[in-house]
Amino acid sequence: MSGQTGNIPILVMREGSGRSGGKDAQRNNIMAARTIAEAVKSSLGPKGMDKMLVDSSGDVIITSDGRTILDKMDIEHPAAKMMVEVAKTQDAEVGDGTTTAVILAGELLGKAEELINKGVHPTVIVEGYNKAADRALETLENIAIRVKPSGKEFLKKVAATSMASKLVSENKEQLAQIAVEAVLSVARKVGEDYLVDLDDIMVEKKPGESMSETKLIEGLVLDKEVVHSGMPKRVEKAKIALLVSALEIKKTEFDTKINIERPEQMDSFLREEEGMLKAMVEKLVASGANVVICQKGIDDMVQHFLARKGVLAVQRVKESDMKKLAMATSGKPVTNLEGLSKSDLGFAELVEERKMGDDKMTFIEGCKNPRSVSILIRGSDKRFLEEAERSVHDALCVVRDVVQAPKIVAGGGAPEMEVARALRAYAETLPGREQLAVRSFGEAMEIVPLTLGENAGLDPVDLLLELRTRHEKGEKWAGVDVFEGKIKDMRELGVYEPLAVKKQTIKSATEATTMILRVDDVIASGRTKAPRMPPGGMPGGGYGGMPPEY
Ligand SMILES: Nc1ncnc2c1ncn2[C@@H]1O[C@H](COP(=O)(O)OP(=O)(O)OP(=O)(O)O)[C@@H](O)[C@H]1O
Ligand SMILES: [Mg+2]
User: Fold this and answer.
1) Does the annotation mark 98 as catalytic?
2) Contact by Cβ (8 Å): 37, 82
Protein backbone atom coordinates (compact mmCIF):
# COMPACT_ATOMS: atom_id res chain seq x y z
CA MET A 1 0.00 0.00 0.00
CA SER A 2 1.51 3.34 -0.95
CA GLY A 3 0.85 7.02 -1.53
CA GLN A 4 2.65 9.44 -3.82
CA THR A 5 4.25 12.88 -3.38
CA GLY A 6 5.66 14.17 -6.61
CA ASN A 7 7.59 11.33 -8.10
CA ILE A 8 8.51 9.64 -4.86
CA PRO A 9 6.22 6.85 -3.67
CA ILE A 10 5.77 6.61 0.10
CA LEU A 11 5.24 3.16 1.51
CA VAL A 12 2.94 3.21 4.52
CA MET A 13 2.43 -0.48 5.00
CA ARG A 14 4.74 -3.41 4.84
CA GLU A 15 5.38 -5.07 1.51
CA GLY A 16 2.92 -7.82 0.76
CA SER A 17 -0.04 -5.93 2.26
CA GLY A 18 -3.11 -5.73 0.11
CA ARG A 19 -5.88 -3.31 -0.50
CA SER A 20 -9.01 -3.26 -2.54
CA GLY A 21 -11.40 -0.38 -2.58
CA GLY A 22 -14.74 0.97 -3.79
CA LYS A 23 -17.15 -1.22 -5.66
CA ASP A 24 -14.67 -4.07 -5.93
CA ALA A 25 -14.38 -4.43 -2.19
CA GLN A 26 -18.13 -4.13 -1.73
CA ARG A 27 -18.97 -6.62 -4.42
CA ASN A 28 -16.54 -9.19 -3.13
CA ASN A 29 -17.62 -8.84 0.47
CA ILE A 30 -21.23 -9.24 -0.56
CA MET A 31 -20.45 -12.26 -2.65
CA ALA A 32 -18.48 -13.96 0.11
CA ALA A 33 -21.29 -13.35 2.62
CA ARG A 34 -23.94 -14.59 0.20
CA THR A 35 -21.96 -17.75 -0.45
CA ILE A 36 -22.32 -18.54 3.24
CA ALA A 37 -26.07 -17.94 3.13
CA GLU A 38 -26.36 -20.23 0.10
CA ALA A 39 -24.54 -22.94 2.00
CA VAL A 40 -27.15 -23.14 4.76
CA LYS A 41 -30.26 -22.49 2.67
CA SER A 42 -31.07 -26.11 1.95
CA SER A 43 -31.24 -26.92 5.67
CA LEU A 44 -34.11 -24.55 6.51
CA GLY A 45 -37.38 -25.92 7.79
CA PRO A 46 -38.92 -29.36 8.32
CA LYS A 47 -38.14 -30.39 4.75
CA GLY A 48 -34.61 -29.04 4.93
CA MET A 49 -31.66 -31.38 4.54
CA ASP A 50 -28.98 -32.21 7.08
CA LYS A 51 -25.29 -31.56 6.54
CA MET A 52 -22.49 -33.97 7.18
CA LEU A 53 -19.41 -32.16 8.39
CA VAL A 54 -16.02 -33.78 8.65
CA ASP A 55 -13.35 -31.98 10.65
CA SER A 56 -9.59 -32.13 10.15
CA SER A 57 -9.26 -35.07 12.54
CA GLY A 58 -11.91 -37.02 10.64
CA ASP A 59 -14.72 -36.63 13.19
CA VAL A 60 -18.15 -36.60 11.60
CA ILE A 61 -21.05 -34.42 12.66
CA ILE A 62 -24.52 -34.63 11.19
CA THR A 63 -26.64 -31.56 11.78
CA SER A 64 -29.13 -29.09 10.35
CA ASP A 65 -28.36 -26.48 12.98
CA GLY A 66 -27.21 -23.28 11.25
CA ARG A 67 -24.84 -22.24 13.98
CA THR A 68 -23.15 -25.64 14.15
CA ILE A 69 -22.77 -25.86 10.37
CA LEU A 70 -21.03 -22.50 10.20
CA ASP A 71 -19.00 -23.14 13.32
CA LYS A 72 -17.49 -26.26 11.83
CA MET A 73 -16.74 -24.75 8.44
CA ASP A 74 -13.20 -23.48 8.13
CA ILE A 75 -14.03 -19.95 7.00
CA GLU A 76 -11.38 -17.35 6.39
CA HIS A 77 -12.88 -14.50 4.38
CA PRO A 78 -13.56 -11.57 6.75
CA ALA A 79 -17.02 -10.78 5.37
CA ALA A 80 -17.95 -14.45 5.42
CA LYS A 81 -16.81 -14.59 9.03
CA MET A 82 -19.28 -11.84 9.85
CA MET A 83 -22.05 -14.15 8.70
CA VAL A 84 -20.81 -16.74 11.15
CA GLU A 85 -21.12 -14.04 13.79
CA VAL A 86 -24.75 -13.52 12.78
CA ALA A 87 -25.46 -17.14 13.64
CA LYS A 88 -23.51 -16.89 16.89
CA THR A 89 -25.33 -13.74 18.01
CA GLN A 90 -28.66 -15.30 17.16
CA ASP A 91 -27.80 -18.43 19.12
CA ALA A 92 -26.51 -16.51 22.12
CA GLU A 93 -29.51 -14.19 22.30
CA VAL A 94 -32.41 -16.54 21.69
CA GLY A 95 -31.04 -20.01 20.83
CA ASP A 96 -32.99 -20.64 17.62
CA GLY A 97 -33.45 -19.10 14.18
CA THR A 98 -29.77 -19.16 13.26
CA THR A 99 -30.35 -20.48 9.74
CA THR A 100 -33.11 -17.94 9.13
CA ALA A 101 -30.92 -15.03 10.29
CA VAL A 102 -28.08 -16.02 7.97
CA ILE A 103 -30.36 -16.56 4.97
CA LEU A 104 -32.02 -13.23 5.63
CA ALA A 105 -28.66 -11.42 5.83
CA GLY A 106 -27.62 -13.04 2.54
CA GLU A 107 -30.80 -11.89 0.82
CA LEU A 108 -30.58 -8.36 2.25
CA LEU A 109 -27.08 -8.14 0.78
CA GLY A 110 -28.25 -9.53 -2.56
CA LYS A 111 -30.97 -6.88 -2.80
CA ALA A 112 -28.47 -4.21 -1.73
CA GLU A 113 -26.16 -5.24 -4.54
CA GLU A 114 -28.96 -4.78 -7.06
CA LEU A 115 -29.50 -1.27 -5.70
CA ILE A 116 -25.78 -0.45 -5.80
CA ASN A 117 -25.74 -1.55 -9.44
CA LYS A 118 -28.62 0.84 -10.09
CA GLY A 119 -26.51 3.65 -8.65
CA VAL A 120 -27.98 3.91 -5.16
CA HIS A 121 -25.26 4.82 -2.68
CA PRO A 122 -24.61 2.28 0.10
CA THR A 123 -25.19 4.85 2.85
CA VAL A 124 -28.68 5.47 1.50
CA ILE A 125 -29.30 1.74 1.51
CA VAL A 126 -28.03 1.48 5.09
CA GLU A 127 -30.37 4.25 6.21
CA GLY A 128 -33.30 2.71 4.40
CA TYR A 129 -32.54 -0.73 5.82
CA ASN A 130 -32.37 0.62 9.36
CA LYS A 131 -35.75 2.33 8.98
CA ALA A 132 -37.21 -0.81 7.46
CA ALA A 133 -35.86 -2.95 10.30
CA ASP A 134 -37.49 -0.67 12.89
CA ARG A 135 -40.80 -0.89 11.07
CA ALA A 136 -40.42 -4.66 10.71
CA LEU A 137 -39.91 -5.06 14.47
CA GLU A 138 -42.96 -2.89 15.15
CA THR A 139 -45.03 -4.97 12.76
CA LEU A 140 -44.02 -8.18 14.50
CA GLU A 141 -44.93 -6.69 17.89
CA ASN A 142 -48.33 -5.71 16.50
CA ILE A 143 -49.23 -9.12 15.14
CA ALA A 144 -47.76 -11.14 18.04
CA ILE A 145 -50.07 -13.30 20.13
CA ARG A 146 -49.83 -12.85 23.89
CA VAL A 147 -49.80 -16.11 25.86
CA LYS A 148 -49.62 -17.14 29.50
CA PRO A 149 -45.94 -17.61 30.48
CA SER A 150 -46.73 -20.86 32.26
CA GLY A 151 -49.38 -22.06 29.79
CA LYS A 152 -48.11 -25.46 28.78
CA GLU A 153 -50.19 -25.79 25.61
CA PHE A 154 -48.45 -23.06 23.62
CA LEU A 155 -45.06 -23.69 25.18
CA LYS A 156 -45.26 -27.26 23.94
CA LYS A 157 -46.20 -26.12 20.45
CA VAL A 158 -43.28 -23.70 20.35
CA ALA A 159 -40.86 -26.41 21.49
CA ALA A 160 -42.25 -28.90 18.95
CA THR A 161 -41.93 -26.36 16.12
CA SER A 162 -38.26 -25.81 16.95
CA MET A 163 -37.66 -29.54 16.68
CA ALA A 164 -39.81 -30.11 13.58
CA SER A 165 -36.82 -29.24 11.41
CA LYS A 166 -34.42 -31.60 13.17
CA LEU A 167 -33.41 -35.23 13.06
CA VAL A 168 -35.42 -35.81 16.25
CA SER A 169 -38.70 -34.63 14.71
CA GLU A 170 -40.33 -38.04 15.13
CA ASN A 171 -40.07 -37.70 18.89
CA LYS A 172 -40.81 -34.00 19.00
CA GLU A 173 -44.03 -34.24 21.01
CA GLN A 174 -42.43 -36.22 23.80
CA LEU A 175 -39.27 -34.11 23.83
CA ALA A 176 -41.35 -30.92 23.79
CA GLN A 177 -43.21 -32.11 26.87
CA ILE A 178 -39.90 -32.79 28.63
CA ALA A 179 -38.43 -29.40 27.63
CA VAL A 180 -41.52 -27.56 28.92
CA GLU A 181 -41.55 -29.41 32.25
CA ALA A 182 -37.83 -28.81 32.67
CA VAL A 183 -37.96 -25.08 31.98
CA LEU A 184 -41.05 -24.53 34.15
CA SER A 185 -39.45 -26.32 37.06
CA VAL A 186 -36.42 -24.02 37.05
CA ALA A 187 -38.33 -20.80 36.29
CA ARG A 188 -38.23 -18.23 39.08
CA LYS A 189 -40.88 -15.59 39.50
CA VAL A 190 -39.48 -12.10 39.89
CA GLY A 191 -42.27 -9.56 40.34
CA GLU A 192 -44.65 -10.12 37.44
CA ASP A 193 -42.04 -11.79 35.26
CA TYR A 194 -40.29 -15.13 35.12
CA LEU A 195 -36.57 -15.68 34.88
CA VAL A 196 -35.02 -18.86 33.57
CA ASP A 197 -31.38 -19.86 33.78
CA LEU A 198 -30.83 -22.82 31.49
CA ASP A 199 -27.64 -23.67 33.39
CA ASP A 200 -29.97 -24.99 36.08
CA ILE A 201 -31.00 -27.80 33.76
CA MET A 202 -28.52 -30.62 33.41
CA VAL A 203 -28.50 -32.34 30.04
CA GLU A 204 -26.78 -35.72 29.81
CA LYS A 205 -26.75 -38.21 26.98
CA LYS A 206 -26.12 -41.91 27.09
CA PRO A 207 -25.97 -44.31 24.13
CA GLY A 208 -28.41 -47.20 24.33
CA GLU A 209 -32.18 -47.73 24.19
CA SER A 210 -34.22 -45.57 21.86
CA MET A 211 -34.94 -41.86 21.76
CA SER A 212 -38.37 -42.50 23.29
CA GLU A 213 -36.63 -43.59 26.51
CA THR A 214 -35.39 -40.01 27.00
CA LYS A 215 -36.53 -38.89 30.45
CA LEU A 216 -36.86 -35.91 32.67
CA ILE A 217 -35.29 -36.63 36.04
CA GLU A 218 -36.26 -34.76 39.16
CA GLY A 219 -32.75 -34.35 40.38
CA LEU A 220 -29.31 -34.80 38.91
CA VAL A 221 -27.56 -37.48 36.92
CA LEU A 222 -23.81 -37.98 36.98
CA ASP A 223 -22.12 -39.91 34.24
CA LYS A 224 -20.05 -41.67 36.91
CA GLU A 225 -20.17 -44.96 38.71
CA VAL A 226 -19.70 -45.73 42.39
CA VAL A 227 -15.94 -46.06 42.91
CA HIS A 228 -15.72 -49.30 44.88
CA SER A 229 -17.56 -52.57 44.40
CA GLY A 230 -17.97 -53.00 48.16
CA MET A 231 -19.92 -49.76 48.54
CA PRO A 232 -23.70 -49.62 48.70
CA LYS A 233 -25.29 -48.87 45.31
CA ARG A 234 -28.28 -47.19 46.87
CA VAL A 235 -28.48 -44.80 49.79
CA GLU A 236 -31.77 -43.39 50.99
CA LYS A 237 -31.97 -40.12 52.94
CA ALA A 238 -28.53 -39.28 51.63
CA LYS A 239 -26.35 -36.81 53.49
CA ILE A 240 -23.85 -35.74 50.92
CA ALA A 241 -20.35 -34.39 51.46
CA LEU A 242 -19.16 -32.36 48.45
CA LEU A 243 -15.39 -32.31 48.29
CA VAL A 244 -13.38 -30.09 46.00
CA SER A 245 -9.96 -31.52 46.85
CA ALA A 246 -8.66 -35.06 46.43
CA LEU A 247 -9.07 -37.69 49.12
CA GLU A 248 -5.46 -38.79 49.20
CA ILE A 249 -2.20 -37.89 50.83
CA LYS A 250 -0.81 -34.86 49.09
CA LYS A 251 2.39 -35.43 47.18
CA THR A 252 5.12 -32.97 48.05
CA GLU A 253 6.13 -30.57 45.36
CA PHE A 254 9.80 -31.49 45.63
CA ASP A 255 11.48 -34.89 45.60
CA THR A 256 11.94 -36.43 49.00
CA LYS A 257 13.90 -39.45 50.01
CA ILE A 258 13.24 -41.63 53.00
CA ASN A 259 15.98 -43.95 54.07
CA ILE A 260 14.62 -47.17 55.42
CA GLU A 261 17.10 -49.47 57.01
CA ARG A 262 14.96 -52.01 58.82
CA PRO A 263 11.72 -53.76 57.78
CA GLU A 264 9.98 -52.40 60.90
CA GLN A 265 10.64 -48.90 59.67
CA MET A 266 8.85 -49.68 56.41
CA ASP A 267 5.98 -51.11 58.37
CA SER A 268 5.61 -48.09 60.57
CA PHE A 269 5.84 -45.81 57.57
CA LEU A 270 2.99 -47.62 55.86
CA ARG A 271 1.00 -47.70 59.06
CA GLU A 272 1.46 -44.00 59.44
CA GLU A 273 0.12 -43.44 55.94
CA GLU A 274 -2.79 -45.79 56.54
CA GLY A 275 -3.55 -43.96 59.75
CA MET A 276 -3.75 -40.63 57.95
CA LEU A 277 -6.09 -42.00 55.31
CA LYS A 278 -8.21 -43.67 57.98
CA ALA A 279 -8.44 -40.36 59.82
CA MET A 280 -9.85 -38.77 56.69
CA VAL A 281 -12.59 -41.36 56.53
CA GLU A 282 -13.29 -40.98 60.26
CA LYS A 283 -13.67 -37.25 59.74
CA LEU A 284 -16.12 -37.77 56.92
CA VAL A 285 -18.18 -40.30 58.80
CA ALA A 286 -18.16 -38.15 61.94
CA SER A 287 -19.79 -35.33 60.00
CA GLY A 288 -22.72 -37.66 59.36
CA ALA A 289 -22.09 -38.10 55.62
CA ASN A 290 -23.21 -41.34 54.00
CA VAL A 291 -22.44 -40.20 50.45
CA VAL A 292 -19.21 -38.59 49.25
CA ILE A 293 -18.95 -36.77 45.93
CA CYS A 294 -15.45 -35.73 45.08
CA GLN A 295 -14.29 -33.42 42.30
CA LYS A 296 -10.84 -35.05 42.29
CA GLY A 297 -9.60 -38.60 42.86
CA ILE A 298 -10.13 -40.86 45.88
CA ASP A 299 -7.22 -43.00 47.05
CA ASP A 300 -7.76 -46.80 46.82
CA MET A 301 -7.24 -47.21 50.52
CA VAL A 302 -9.78 -44.46 51.29
CA GLN A 303 -12.24 -46.15 48.96
CA HIS A 304 -11.75 -49.36 50.88
CA PHE A 305 -12.32 -47.73 54.27
CA LEU A 306 -15.35 -45.82 53.00
CA ALA A 307 -16.82 -49.07 51.69
CA ARG A 308 -16.33 -50.67 55.11
CA LYS A 309 -18.27 -47.81 56.67
CA GLY A 310 -21.11 -48.24 54.17
CA VAL A 311 -20.51 -44.89 52.46
CA LEU A 312 -21.25 -44.47 48.74
CA ALA A 313 -18.61 -42.45 46.89
CA VAL A 314 -18.19 -40.98 43.41
CA GLN A 315 -15.01 -39.36 42.14
CA ARG A 316 -13.76 -37.01 39.40
CA VAL A 317 -16.99 -35.08 38.97
CA LYS A 318 -16.90 -32.02 36.67
CA GLU A 319 -16.59 -28.64 38.37
CA SER A 320 -19.79 -27.41 36.70
CA ASP A 321 -21.63 -30.47 38.01
CA MET A 322 -20.29 -29.82 41.51
CA LYS A 323 -21.88 -26.39 41.35
CA LYS A 324 -25.19 -27.91 40.27
CA LEU A 325 -24.95 -30.47 43.06
CA ALA A 326 -24.36 -27.73 45.59
CA MET A 327 -27.41 -25.85 44.34
CA ALA A 328 -29.61 -28.92 44.20
CA THR A 329 -28.72 -30.49 47.53
CA SER A 330 -28.04 -27.23 49.41
CA GLY A 331 -24.63 -28.61 50.32
CA LYS A 332 -21.46 -26.60 50.52
CA PRO A 333 -18.40 -27.77 48.59
CA VAL A 334 -15.45 -27.94 50.97
CA THR A 335 -11.77 -27.78 50.12
CA ASN A 336 -10.39 -28.79 53.45
CA LEU A 337 -11.68 -31.88 55.28
CA GLU A 338 -10.70 -30.29 58.58
CA GLY A 339 -13.39 -27.69 58.11
CA LEU A 340 -16.15 -30.17 57.20
CA SER A 341 -19.16 -29.99 59.49
CA LYS A 342 -22.69 -31.32 59.53
CA SER A 343 -24.06 -28.05 58.15
CA ASP A 344 -21.97 -28.40 54.99
CA LEU A 345 -23.74 -31.61 53.96
CA GLY A 346 -26.27 -31.64 51.18
CA PHE A 347 -29.45 -33.68 51.22
CA ALA A 348 -31.25 -35.93 48.75
CA GLU A 349 -33.95 -38.56 49.27
CA LEU A 350 -32.06 -41.05 47.16
CA VAL A 351 -28.63 -41.54 45.64
CA GLU A 352 -28.42 -44.59 43.44
CA GLU A 353 -26.18 -46.13 40.81
CA ARG A 354 -28.14 -47.52 37.89
CA LYS A 355 -27.07 -49.47 34.85
CA MET A 356 -27.59 -47.58 31.60
CA GLY A 357 -26.67 -49.62 28.53
CA ASP A 358 -23.09 -50.77 29.03
CA ASP A 359 -22.34 -48.07 31.58
CA LYS A 360 -23.43 -47.06 35.01
CA MET A 361 -24.67 -43.64 36.07
CA THR A 362 -25.37 -42.15 39.47
CA PHE A 363 -28.76 -40.57 40.10
CA ILE A 364 -29.36 -38.02 42.83
CA GLU A 365 -33.10 -37.68 43.29
CA GLY A 366 -35.50 -35.92 45.61
CA CYS A 367 -33.05 -33.10 46.21
CA LYS A 368 -33.61 -30.46 48.85
CA ASN A 369 -34.07 -27.89 46.09
CA PRO A 370 -36.96 -29.03 43.90
CA ARG A 371 -35.81 -26.74 41.09
CA SER A 372 -33.05 -29.09 40.03
CA VAL A 373 -33.87 -31.22 37.02
CA SER A 374 -31.96 -33.17 34.40
CA ILE A 375 -32.75 -34.46 30.96
CA LEU A 376 -31.22 -37.81 30.12
CA ILE A 377 -31.21 -38.28 26.36
CA ARG A 378 -31.11 -41.82 25.04
CA GLY A 379 -30.49 -43.02 21.50
CA SER A 380 -28.62 -45.70 19.68
CA ASP A 381 -26.00 -43.73 17.80
CA LYS A 382 -23.41 -41.27 19.07
CA ARG A 383 -23.90 -38.77 16.24
CA PHE A 384 -27.64 -38.98 16.56
CA LEU A 385 -27.31 -38.30 20.29
CA GLU A 386 -25.17 -35.24 19.65
CA GLU A 387 -27.69 -33.79 17.21
CA ALA A 388 -30.47 -34.67 19.65
CA GLU A 389 -28.65 -32.72 22.36
CA ARG A 390 -28.43 -29.68 20.06
CA SER A 391 -32.14 -29.96 19.25
CA VAL A 392 -33.08 -30.27 22.92
CA HIS A 393 -30.96 -27.17 23.51
CA ASP A 394 -32.98 -25.30 20.85
CA ALA A 395 -36.22 -26.50 22.42
CA LEU A 396 -35.16 -25.42 25.91
CA CYS A 397 -34.13 -22.03 24.52
CA VAL A 398 -37.42 -21.32 22.76
CA VAL A 399 -39.46 -22.36 25.80
CA ARG A 400 -37.28 -20.10 27.95
CA ASP A 401 -37.77 -17.25 25.45
CA VAL A 402 -41.55 -17.50 25.71
CA VAL A 403 -41.60 -17.96 29.50
CA GLN A 404 -39.50 -14.81 29.88
CA ALA A 405 -41.29 -12.79 27.20
CA PRO A 406 -44.68 -14.41 26.65
CA LYS A 407 -45.43 -13.47 23.06
CA ILE A 408 -45.45 -15.77 20.06
CA VAL A 409 -46.07 -15.69 16.32
CA ALA A 410 -47.14 -18.47 13.97
CA GLY A 411 -44.32 -19.71 11.70
CA GLY A 412 -43.99 -21.18 8.24
CA GLY A 413 -42.95 -17.83 6.77
CA ALA A 414 -46.23 -16.11 7.75
CA PRO A 415 -44.67 -13.38 9.92
CA GLU A 416 -42.09 -12.63 7.24
CA MET A 417 -44.86 -12.22 4.63
CA GLU A 418 -46.73 -9.92 6.98
CA VAL A 419 -43.60 -7.80 7.47
CA ALA A 420 -43.06 -7.69 3.69
CA ARG A 421 -46.63 -6.45 3.24
CA ALA A 422 -46.23 -3.77 5.89
CA LEU A 423 -42.96 -2.60 4.36
CA ARG A 424 -44.50 -2.33 0.88
CA ALA A 425 -47.07 0.04 2.31
CA TYR A 426 -44.50 1.91 4.36
CA ALA A 427 -42.19 2.39 1.36
CA GLU A 428 -44.94 4.30 -0.45
CA THR A 429 -44.77 6.99 2.22
CA LEU A 430 -41.03 7.61 1.78
CA PRO A 431 -39.23 9.80 -0.72
CA GLY A 432 -37.04 8.63 -3.63
CA ARG A 433 -34.19 6.29 -3.08
CA GLU A 434 -34.96 5.46 0.53
CA GLN A 435 -38.23 4.05 -0.75
CA LEU A 436 -36.26 1.66 -2.93
CA ALA A 437 -34.21 0.42 0.01
CA VAL A 438 -37.27 -0.16 2.22
CA ARG A 439 -39.03 -2.01 -0.58
CA SER A 440 -35.97 -4.18 -1.11
CA PHE A 441 -35.88 -5.01 2.59
CA GLY A 442 -39.48 -6.14 2.36
CA GLU A 443 -38.77 -8.30 -0.66
CA ALA A 444 -35.79 -9.83 1.11
CA MET A 445 -38.07 -11.00 3.95
CA GLU A 446 -39.93 -13.18 1.47
CA ILE A 447 -36.85 -15.39 1.18
CA VAL A 448 -37.99 -17.25 4.31
CA PRO A 449 -41.31 -18.68 3.00
CA LEU A 450 -39.69 -19.03 -0.40
CA THR A 451 -36.85 -21.18 0.91
CA LEU A 452 -39.21 -23.23 3.09
CA GLY A 453 -41.28 -23.89 -0.04
CA GLU A 454 -38.31 -24.59 -2.29
CA ASN A 455 -36.92 -27.10 0.19
CA ALA A 456 -40.31 -28.83 0.05
CA GLY A 457 -40.19 -28.87 -3.75
CA LEU A 458 -42.85 -26.21 -4.35
CA ASP A 459 -42.93 -23.78 -7.25
CA PRO A 460 -41.50 -20.48 -5.99
CA VAL A 461 -43.40 -18.14 -8.32
CA ASP A 462 -46.85 -19.60 -7.63
CA LEU A 463 -46.09 -19.82 -3.94
CA LEU A 464 -45.09 -16.20 -3.59
CA LEU A 465 -47.99 -14.88 -5.64
CA GLU A 466 -50.54 -16.77 -3.59
CA LEU A 467 -48.91 -15.83 -0.29
CA ARG A 468 -48.87 -12.16 -1.25
CA THR A 469 -52.52 -12.21 -2.32
CA ARG A 470 -53.69 -13.93 0.82
CA HIS A 471 -51.78 -11.58 3.07
CA GLU A 472 -53.21 -8.60 1.21
CA LYS A 473 -56.65 -10.07 1.96
CA GLY A 474 -55.85 -9.97 5.65
CA GLU A 475 -54.89 -13.59 6.24
CA LYS A 476 -51.94 -12.68 8.40
CA TRP A 477 -51.02 -16.21 9.42
CA ALA A 478 -51.02 -17.68 5.92
CA GLY A 479 -47.77 -19.63 5.57
CA VAL A 480 -46.25 -22.63 3.87
CA ASP A 481 -47.56 -26.04 4.87
CA VAL A 482 -44.46 -27.91 3.79
CA PHE A 483 -46.01 -31.35 4.27
CA GLU A 484 -49.16 -30.83 2.22
CA GLY A 485 -47.47 -28.47 -0.22
CA LYS A 486 -50.19 -25.85 0.27
CA ILE A 487 -50.68 -22.44 1.78
CA LYS A 488 -52.45 -22.66 5.11
CA ASP A 489 -53.22 -20.77 8.26
CA MET A 490 -50.23 -21.77 10.37
CA ARG A 491 -52.28 -21.63 13.57
CA GLU A 492 -54.25 -24.63 12.34
CA LEU A 493 -51.01 -26.58 12.14
CA GLY A 494 -49.88 -25.46 15.59
CA VAL A 495 -46.63 -24.05 14.15
CA TYR A 496 -45.63 -21.34 16.63
CA GLU A 497 -42.36 -19.58 17.37
CA PRO A 498 -41.27 -17.07 20.02
CA LEU A 499 -41.65 -13.44 18.98
CA ALA A 500 -38.15 -12.95 20.45
CA VAL A 501 -36.64 -15.35 17.90
CA LYS A 502 -38.29 -13.64 14.92
CA LYS A 503 -37.31 -10.20 16.14
CA GLN A 504 -33.73 -11.27 16.73
CA THR A 505 -33.40 -12.71 13.18
CA ILE A 506 -34.17 -9.23 11.85
CA LYS A 507 -31.85 -7.51 14.30
CA SER A 508 -28.89 -9.85 13.71
CA ALA A 509 -29.33 -9.87 9.92
CA THR A 510 -29.69 -6.08 9.63
CA GLU A 511 -26.69 -5.44 11.85
CA ALA A 512 -24.38 -7.64 9.80
CA THR A 513 -25.74 -6.40 6.49
CA THR A 514 -25.28 -2.73 7.28
CA MET A 515 -21.83 -3.39 8.66
CA ILE A 516 -20.77 -5.14 5.46
CA LEU A 517 -22.36 -2.43 3.27
CA ARG A 518 -20.49 0.37 5.02
CA VAL A 519 -17.13 -1.11 4.08
CA ASP A 520 -15.63 0.24 0.88
CA ASP A 521 -12.02 -0.48 1.55
CA VAL A 522 -10.36 -3.74 2.51
CA ILE A 523 -6.82 -3.42 3.72
CA ALA A 524 -5.15 -6.67 4.55
CA SER A 525 -1.76 -6.98 6.15
CA GLY A 526 0.86 -9.08 4.36
CA ARG A 527 0.52 -12.81 4.70
CA THR A 528 2.88 -15.61 4.03
CA LYS A 529 0.03 -17.78 2.84
CA ALA A 530 -2.58 -16.85 0.26
CA PRO A 531 -5.98 -16.48 1.96
CA ARG A 532 -8.32 -19.29 1.25
CA MET A 533 -11.53 -18.71 -0.62
CA PRO A 534 -14.94 -19.28 0.93
CA PRO A 535 -16.84 -22.36 -0.21
CA GLY A 536 -18.03 -21.93 -3.75
CA GLY A 537 -15.06 -19.75 -4.55
CA MET A 538 -14.84 -16.10 -5.40
CA PRO A 539 -13.80 -14.39 -8.55
CA GLY A 540 -10.57 -12.51 -8.22
CA GLY A 541 -9.48 -14.78 -5.38
CA GLY A 542 -8.38 -13.65 -1.95
CA TYR A 543 -9.90 -10.85 0.07
CA GLY A 544 -11.86 -8.49 -2.07
CA GLY A 545 -10.43 -9.84 -5.32
CA MET A 546 -7.15 -7.99 -5.01
CA PRO A 547 -5.02 -7.80 -8.09
CA PRO A 548 -2.21 -10.34 -8.21
CA GLU A 549 0.55 -7.83 -7.59
CA TYR A 550 -0.68 -7.32 -4.02
N1 LIG B 1 -44.61 -27.70 10.24
C2 LIG B 1 -44.06 -26.62 9.69
N3 LIG B 1 -44.54 -26.11 8.55
C4 LIG B 1 -43.97 -25.03 7.98
N5 LIG B 1 -42.91 -24.39 8.48
C6 LIG B 1 -42.39 -24.85 9.61
C7 LIG B 1 -42.93 -25.99 10.28
N8 LIG B 1 -42.18 -26.21 11.38
C9 LIG B 1 -41.22 -25.26 11.40
N10 LIG B 1 -41.34 -24.43 10.34
C11 LIG B 1 -40.52 -23.27 9.99
O12 LIG B 1 -39.16 -23.66 9.83
C13 LIG B 1 -38.33 -22.54 10.11
C14 LIG B 1 -37.22 -22.94 11.04
O15 LIG B 1 -36.39 -23.86 10.43
P16 LIG B 1 -35.02 -24.31 11.08
O17 LIG B 1 -35.25 -24.71 12.49
O18 LIG B 1 -34.42 -25.29 10.15
O19 LIG B 1 -34.15 -23.00 11.01
P20 LIG B 1 -33.83 -21.92 12.09
O21 LIG B 1 -34.72 -22.06 13.27
O22 LIG B 1 -33.82 -20.62 11.39
O23 LIG B 1 -32.31 -22.23 12.46
P24 LIG B 1 -31.70 -23.27 13.52
O25 LIG B 1 -32.80 -24.11 14.06
O26 LIG B 1 -30.72 -24.04 12.68
O27 LIG B 1 -31.06 -22.41 14.54
C28 LIG B 1 -39.22 -21.47 10.73
O29 LIG B 1 -39.49 -20.47 9.78
C30 LIG B 1 -40.47 -22.26 11.10
O31 LIG B 1 -41.62 -21.44 11.10
MG1 LIG C 1 -34.89 -23.85 14.37
Assistant:
1) yes
2) no
